[in-house]
Specification:
The complex is a heterotrimer of chains A (606), B (319) and C (282). Chain A has 606 residues and is of the alpha/beta class. Chain A contains 24 helices and 22 strands. Chain A has an 8-stranded mixed beta sheet, sandwiched between helices. In chain A, strands 18-19-20-15-21-22 form a 6-stranded mixed beta sheet, with helices on both faces. In chain A, strand 21 and strand 22 form a beta hairpin. Chain A is globular. Chain B has helices at residues 2-29, 34-39, 45-54, 61-73, 87-122, 127-141, 144-158, 174-180, 182-208, 211-218, 223-249, 251-260, 266-275, 279-307, 309-312, 314-318. In chain B, 45% of the residues are buried. The chains are: A alpha/beta (606), B mainly alpha (319), C mainly alpha (282). At the B-C interface, helix 1, helix 6, helix 7, helix 9 and helix 11 of B face helix 5, helix 6, helix 9, helix 10 and helix 11 of C.
């Protein structure tokens, strides 16, 4: 047995006082040879991070290993003493955490934290710690390594923090690197650089890696082997090529199909419903059965076994009978793009400049005048058009939306609605009709719905406010709206906490539609959702737009998502427009280098 | 950074100025003037007139406020009506006594509270934590005059170990003061330790659940180093301000404790001053206590600024 | 959490049960005490001196020969009256102002908070004593004064809790709809900061009770011969080694009420999941 790492039927979970244990990871098997790279992919809450931490013998407070064992170099972690374990952690096996900004201790200088790692896990004598740290920083391509040692974590950019975390993990010359979503939260450019660095480290040092991510594109680029997790179980495992090209499990197929790709006008709605909770519910059935298009009675009554075909393991009893999923062919956005150009202008921006929200006098005196986040933005949006505003975090795209919605004041320039209304004035000074005609849908439905109101109260509020409907009118209108966003009526009595993320976002859309708006502002409305839910949300939006003749301003950081919806695209960077044009043109012939960079980061159309 | 500190100082002075105004106006608004209030039944005729002349009460209020404020700026607090003495000589030695009492309780109590808070957080929901936390609830809820009375009857009357009621001259030498303050310090400490311990505990629990403490475990560090170097400083930073607020808030308790133990400090002095209707003295004492509050907060703010690298180096990061 | 399930959660923890029991017992006692006490609170027995417990006087007599049990049963009424209404006033004005400050932000917020910070610097114990010394200790005076001073801290707390909510998009959504400030405060924010305020009310109540009992211990809270725990302790404590009952009985009564309130506050905070953020604001 020459496996570096071996997991045998590892289950992790917690034991409530008065009931059976609840599983977050259910009998996971994994094996990894020296120098191999394995990608662990799955949507949020599938247990992938919990599984990764259990490899280090670590369980978050309240969780415990319920069964199975973890072998590192043939040694059972359970059998090792605490001292032995602490010797391994950060030494032979090192973690690169999800968010390095939070994983570095804020009150200690980088030097102190680097030296700790060297003291514990290397033979370098104390006098050379400084030199060794600088070497490691150079290894991870950090600029000005000497000065960096004297800094505190918060003085570094996100990318630098991540590189420091990588250098710290390398200090013990690990045989196994564990990476927990190491690039999530970084912007596209930095993400690409960090991934490149990690791949290069894996190649040159022959370090084995377990790479956890929700982004199958990232995994496909970096790993030789892929394991797919769903609801606490590994449901498919194999080489990168097999899993990406010939996915065996219906979930993997659906997942691959819902990943937005460039130039793909429609994302298939491949998964119905949502995860069952708690995960124990499918103890004696297939984990994916409830959402599976190919489910048979046997899937409901029996847990499928993992079937190994030449190293390609799939946990599905119907594998032989299912037809491989066909990705829809490339379609352009012609239907929407062919709108007559002589439609009336709904929204017009001229040289718009914005700052962050204005504050009190004392605040201004202490922290200086607020800086400019958006400058020289001009655009035109006609009736029935959809305009995509693309940029990374900090590009000012959300500030523009918030200003148009009247939530923050504009600085200079002009924003005109329907040719006559000034949109640089805050909500308090706006005409009620203007307030009604512009509706904003927020990024995160967890936060945009009041947790203490029922869905009915939430949807009826605009109806009462803008139309002064009677209770009966409100109720019938609310039911119509639930129909439009494809939610059952009995949800009206529920609270947002009782709905899934995708369902909540549908409620938020229904609330916006209740006002019968002319202009719908969408602020990253799919980015808080899992890919599988995102696909169906996009479909809904497309349908509603056609049905209701909506004019949409759609903001996102995700190019393919915008590409699937928008007729025109504007690319923002640091608050300025760097490219604008029809969707197809921009995607096929980008002129700005930044646009090309963004496009390169996207998973290609297969 | 420099701006922030300047602002804190500025705000502290503005606060004190406003407080002095509020105190002055409040006393003006009370029925009767200071001399009438003090003299009570005898407030008539020559006696009242003399008193009013002596304390300049026949002048308009704003003139007196300006005179009072000018005096304050020069360290002249005014004159006690009852004792016909400059207030500095009345307040000075008693203020010293209160300082000795408060500082001793803080010097012993704060480290103990931090220690217990960390222990309770590390053993969260275990027996030791439940014991410490319950004891804390008990001591922070029982009024000081009850704990004080019970401590006297146990340590002084029953065991005879410590002096119960403080019997000393106002300006007794420090050594003598220390010989007397065992029980008052203990009474103050019990409340203070309970409050601060609870804050440290919950702040520590937050920090122990943070990513960087998990990372320090997964880096292979020993438990001791995780707690002392990585967790504790981050738990104490947000607690500094709360501790200062709390100590200031507990000053109300000092008042009661000094009465219980008959301790000659500014707390008992203020109760007596109010009972005597000696308004100039009350004004001076109120302002003094406000300054203690403001001073403590100022110190805490500046300490936080200096100890928190995020605040300290904001300027550096921007450049 | 609905009212019903909150009560259930409160009753599930032992400390919640004990606390609620103590609080309800004291409130009930305060209401019915005049009907059930065996003696007139001011009647002196022929002994005219302190006496230990006996069959006629279960908790003995105080140094003036008055029945201690009667006086203890009656001794919490004034305190409860003043602190219950004082707490209601403090929470009401404090939370309203705090929510407005948090929601409005900018200059409104700056002005309100600077004023609050300044008022926090005023040594309120001295002010309380001064006001009582000048206006007397009528319940109304005490309620208004305590209600004012204890509301100042509530402003800070309510503002902090509101700021946590204001950044959430449901408030922004209401603003973008064009809702009035009052509607946002009452319909959107209040239901979400209600839990914090509920726990805070319990805490404030116990602190106010501490302050009231301290006042009456100092001789400012009630006018003799009205029975009151603080005053009873103050008068009898010098004789404690000779006659412990007149001191111990009011001590037990007062402590059990305050501990009860604190246990309820703690259990509430745990049931509502707020126990970890308690330390954030004083």
């Amino acid at each position: 047995m020459n496996d570096l790492l071996r997991l045998e039927k590892v289950s992790v979970g917690y034991r409530p006082i008065d009931s059976e244990p609840v599983l977050l990871v259910n009998e996971a098997d994994l094996a990894l040879g020296p120098g191999e790279t394995l990608g662990l992919v799955g949507e949020s809450g599938c247990g992938k991070s919990t599984l990764l931490l259990s490899v280090m013998g670590y369980f978050k407070p309240g969780l415990e290993r319920l069964s199975g064992r973890v072998l590192f170099e043939g040694q059972d972690l359970e059998q090792i003493s605490r001292d032995g374990l602490q010797q391994l952690r950060g030494g032979a096996m090192a973690l690169i955490p999800q968010n390095a900004g939070q994983a570095l201790t804020p009150t200690l200088k980088i030097a102190v934290q680097m030296f700790e790692a060297l003291r514990l896990h290397s033979d370098v004598p104390a006098v050379h710690w400084q030199r060794k740290s600088i070497e490691l920083f150079e290894r991870v391509q950090l600029p000005a390594p000497e000065a960096l040692l004297e800094r505190y974590p918060h003085e570094l950019s996100g990318g630098q923090q991540q590189r420091v975390a990588i250098a710290m993990a390398l200090a013990g010359a690990p045989k196994l690197l564990l990476l927990d979503e190491p690039t999530t939260g970084l912007d596209v450019t930095t993400q690409a650089q960090v991934l490149e660095l990690l791949t290069e480290i894996g190649r040159t040092t022959q370090t084995a890696m377990v790479f956890v991510s929700h982004d199958i594109g990232v995994i496909a680029k970096t790993c030789q082997k892929i394991a797919v997790m769903y609801a606490g179980e590994i449901i498919e495992a194999g080489t990168q090529e097999t899993v990406m090209k010939r996915p065996g499990h219906p979930y993997t197929q659906a997942l691959l199909a819902s990943v937005p790709r460039l130039g793909q006008a429609l994302m298939p709605d491949t998964m119905q419903g949502r995860l069952l909770e708690p995960l124990n519910a499918h103890k004696d059935s297939c984990a994916f059965e409830a959402r599976c298009l190919f489910a048979e009675p046997i899937c409901r009554s029996q847990k499928p076994a993992m079937i190994d075909t030449q190293g390609h393991c799939v946990k599905c009893s119907q594998q032989a009978s299912i037809t491989p999923f066909q990705l829809p062919d490339f379609q352009s956005n012609e239907a929407a793009g062919s709108l007559a150009p002589d439609q009336g202008i709904v929204l017009e921006l001229r040289d718009l400049a914005l700052t962050y929200q204005s504050t009190g006098l004392i605040h201004r005196w202490l922290h200086g005048a607020p800086e400019r986040v958006v400058a020289d933005v001009s655009l035109e949006l006609r009736q029935g058009q959809t305009l995509g505003l693309v940029g990374e975090s900090g590009s000012g795209k959300s500030s523009i939306l918030r200003t148009l919605a009247g939530l923050q004041p504009g600085l200079s320039g002009a924003a005109t609605f329907l040719g006559q209304h000034d949109l640089l004035v805050p909500v308090g000074q706006r005409d009620p009709e203007v307030l009604r005609k512009i509706q904003l849908v927020f990024q995160n439905p967890d936060a945009s719905l009041n947790p203490r109101q029922t869905i009915r109260q939430i949807i009826e509020r605009p109806l009462r406010l803008y139309f002064q409907y009677s209770a009966a009118q409100c109720f019938s209108e609310a039911r119509d709206l639930m129909d439009s966003v494809q939610l059952p009526y009995d949800y009206l009595g529920r609270f947002p906490g009782q709905l899934s993320g995708g369902e909540r976002q549908r409620v938020a859309i229904a609330r916006a539609l209740a006002a019968k708006p002319d202009l719908l502002l969408c602020d990253e409305i799919t980015s808080a959702l899992d890919v599988s839910v995102q696909a169906s949300m996009m479909q809904l939006l497309k349908m509603l737009r056609t049905q209701r003749q909506l004019t949409v301003l759609f903001v996102s950081h995700d190019l393919p998502v915008v590409g699937a919806l928008a007729d025109h695209v504007i690319i923002l960077r640091h608050g300025r427009i760097c490219e604008a044009g029809a969707t197809g043109e921009i995607f096929e012939q980008p002129t700005h280098p930044y646009t090309r960079e963004l496009l390169d980061a996207v998973l290609p159309h297969s | 950074m420099l701006r922030l500190i300047t602002f804190r100082f500025l705000f502290a002075f503005v606060t004190l100025w406003v407080v002095s105004l509020v105190v002055f106006i409040a006393v003006e608004l009370l029925p009767g003037d200071a001399c009438e209030a003090f003299l009570g039944q005898m407030a008539q005729g020559q006696r009242l007139d003399n008193c009013r002349v002596e304390h300049r009460l026949n002048e308009p209020a704003y003139v007196r406020y300006i005179a009072w404020a000018q005096g304050l700026a020069q360290g002249d607090l005014g004159k006690s009506i009852k004792r016909s003495k400059p207030l500095e000589s009345v307040i000075g030695p008693r203020f010293r006594n209160t300082l000795i009492l408060g500082l001793t309780a803080a010097a012993l109590g704060i480290p103990l509270a931090i220690f217990l808070g960390v222990l309770a957080a590390l053993w969260r929901d275990k027996k030791a934590d439940l014991f410490i936390s319950s004891a804390a609830i008990f001591f922070m809820t029982i009024p000081e005059f009850i704990t004080g009375t019970l401590l006297i009857s146990f340590f002084s009357v029953y065991l005879g170990w410590l002096p119960g009621i403080v019997i000393m001259r106002v300006d007794a030498p420090i050594i003598e003061v220390f010989g007397q303050i065992g029980l008052p310090v203990l009474t103050l400490m019990l409340v203070m330790v309970a409050h601060i311990m609870r804050m440290v505990r919950s702040s520590m629990i937050d920090v122990l659940a943070s990513d960087f403490v998990m990372m320090s475990e997964l880096k292979g560090l020993s438990k001791t180093r995780q707690v002392l170097r990585h967790a504790l400083p981050n738990a104490l930073l947000p607690a500094i301000n709360l501790i200062a607020l709390n100590i200031a808030w507990l000053m109300g308790g000092v008042l009661v404790v000094e009465v219980v133990f008959n301790y000659p400090g500014i707390g008992r002095l203020s109760v007596n001053a109010i009972a005597d209707r000696d308004f100039p003295l009350v004004q001076a004492l109120a302002l003094l206590m406000a300054s203690i509050y403001v001073g403590l907060n100022l110190m805490a703010d500046i300490a936080t600024l200096l100890l928190n690298p995020k605040l300290r180096t904001r300027q550096g990061a921007a450049q | 959490m609905t009212r019903h399930s909150l009560l259930m959660a409160l009753l599930r923890s032992p400390s919640g049960r004990i606390g609620l029991g103590l609080v309800l017992f004291h409130c009930g006692l305060a209401l019915v005490a005049p009907l059930i006490v065996p003696y007139d609170f001011n009647a002196q027995s022929e002994v005219l001196d302190a006496m230990g417990p006996s069959l006629q006087h279960w908790a003995g007599l105080d140094t003036l020969g008055r029945d201690v049990l009667t006086r203890t049963f009656l001794g919490g009424r004034q305190a409860l009256l003043v602190t219950v209404f004082g707490t209601i006033i403090a929470i009401t004005w404090g939370s309203f102002l705090g929510m407005v400050a948090g929601l409005k932000g900018g200059r409104v917020d700056e002005w309100i908070m600077r004023t609050v910070d300044t008022f926090l610097a005023i040594p309120f114990m001295i002010f309380l004593l001064l006001i009582i010394a000048s206006f007397g200790n009528e319940p109304m005076v005490m309620i208004l004064t305590l209600g004012f001073f204890y509301g100042i801290g509530v402003v800070r707390l309510a503002r902090a809790a509101t700021l946590d909510e204001v950044v959430k998009d449901y408030v922004q959504s209401a603003r973008a709809r064009g809702e009035r400030t009052l509607t946002i405060v009452v319909k959107e924010i209040l239901p979400n900061v209600r839990d914090v305020l509920l726990v805070e009310s319990a805490m404030r109540w116990s602190w106010m009770l501490l302050a009231f009992s301290a006042l009456s211990f100092l001789g400012f809270g009630v006018t003799p011969p009205t029975p009151d725990w603080g005053l009873m302790i103050a008068n009898a404590r010098i004789y404690m080694s000779l006659a412990p009952w007149p001191v111990l009985a009011p001590m037990i009564a007062l402590s059990s009420l305050i501990i009860g309130i604190n246990l309820v506050a703690d259990a509430l905070a745990k049931a509502l999941g707020l126990d970890r953020t308690q330390a954030r604001v004083l």
